From TrEMBL:
Gene3D superfamilies hit by this protein: PEBP-like
SUPFAM superfamilies according to UniProt: PEBP-like
PANTHER family attached to this UniProt entry: OS05G0518000 PROTEIN (PTHR11362:SF30), PHOSPHATIDYLETHANOLAMINE-BINDING PROTEIN (PTHR11362)
InterPro entries for this protein: PEBP, PEBP-like_sf, PEBP_euk
Protein name: Uncharacterized protein
Organism this protein belongs to: Rhynchospora breviuscula
Residues of the signal peptide: none
Residues passing through the membrane, by range: none
One Pfam family, short name: PBP
Length: 174
């Protein structure tokens, strides 16, 4: 079975290959988000509940939500737009136990279908990750390198404007 993160080019565009070592769940409006699902902006108005499956409370995590397709999939010159960041989340808890360092900004794509990517990192320790300077052109790889973070899990959903229709279109080059 193919990995949805590879098929959707999350691995490649946003992350390098990694080994999933813990589980985590994303719930919008108390509904479990399935990897690769299609959600409209009205369904993601409020920040989701994120449950982390690690069994060690002494291990801390950072969660981010980025849009690698901002402002549009055909011209992602703001790649990766940072929508949310929570640090210092203890294992086997949820994000409410962490420190929200970048407030949740709901996804509102104006054109095309955007991949909204949640990445969960293992931190070196508590209070070792800090607020980034920008939301535009955030870079998950550089961020992980700067703070010595390991990717432990990731998932994504597709989002397009409320009145949008259709799927991701791949056109051969002329």
């Amino acid at each position: 079975m193919s990995d949805p993160l590879v098929v959707s080019n999350i691995i490649g565009d946003v992350l390098d290959p990694f080994r999933r070592s813990i589980s985590f769940q994303v719930l919008y409006n108390n509904r479990l988000m399935v990897t690769g699902s299609d959600l409209r902006p009205s369904a993601v108005l409020n920040r989701p509940k994120i449950e982390i499956g690690s069994s060690d409370l002494r291990v801390f995590h950072t969660l981010i939500l980025v849009d690698p397709d901002a402002p549009s999939p055909s011209n992602p010159n703001q790649r990766e737009y940072l929508h949310w960041m929570v640090t210092d989340i203890p294992g086997s808890t949820d994000v409410s136990f962490g420190r929200e360092v970048v407030l949740y900004e709901r996804p509102e794509p104006r054109s095309g279908i955007h991949r909204m990517v949640f990445v969960l990192y293992r931190q070196l320790g508590r209070a070792t990750v800090f607020h980034p300077e920008i939301r535009n052109n955030f870079n998950c790889r550089s961020f992980a390198h700067q703070y010595h973070l390991d990717v432990v899990a990731a998932t994504y959903f597709n989002c397009q404007r409320e009145s949008g229709s259709g799927g991701r279109r791949f056109r051969p080059e002329n």
